[in-house]
Amino acid sequence: MGRGVRWFVLPGVSTTFAGDGAVLLDIKKGTCYRLNLVATRLWLAIDAHPEGVLTTEIVDVLGKHFPVARDVLERDAGACLDNLLAMSLVRRKRATISSKAAQGRT
């Protein structure tokens, strides 16, 4: 699923929230997408971190809201992230570790 990946919301995506989910508007394409409650939580986890959020952190957030086994959350989050990526609503970037952290000096 790409544990060492950071996810970012792409510019030009507007979000409107409703009680049972959210609607995303890709302003450039003029296309709307409806998210269910789980996908909305995932979206909020990404949107709250302009600097990017790790896949594992997204799964952690989902685990706080949904009493589901972690492997199921990882699988479902991965599928949702793949869909958002395919629709050009998010981008991903391999997370880098600073040289100090890599050497165990924080």
Arrangement of strands in the largest sheet = 5-1-6
CATH class descriptor name: Alpha Beta
Q: What is the string of SSEs from the N terminus onward?
A: EEEEHEHHEH
Number of spatially distinct domains: 1
Question: Any overview of this molecule?
Answer:
This protein is α+β, with helices and mostly antiparallel strands. 41% of the residues lie in helices and 27% in strands. Strands 5-1-6 form a 3-stranded antiparallel beta sheet. The protein has a 3-stranded antiparallel beta sheet with strand order 2-3-4, with helices on one face. The longest helix has 17 residues, at 70-86. The chain is globular and about 35 Å long.
Please tag this protein with its features:
106 residues, alpha+beta, Outer Surface Protein A, domain 3, three-stranded antiparallel sheet, 27% strand, globular
SSE topology sketch:
Blueprint: E1 5-9, E2 13-18, E3 21-26, E4 31-35, H1 37-47, E5 53-54, H2 55-65, H3 70-86, E6 90-94, H4 99-102
Antiparallel strand pairs: 1-5, 1-6, 2-3, 3-4
Helix pairs in contact: 1-2, 2-3
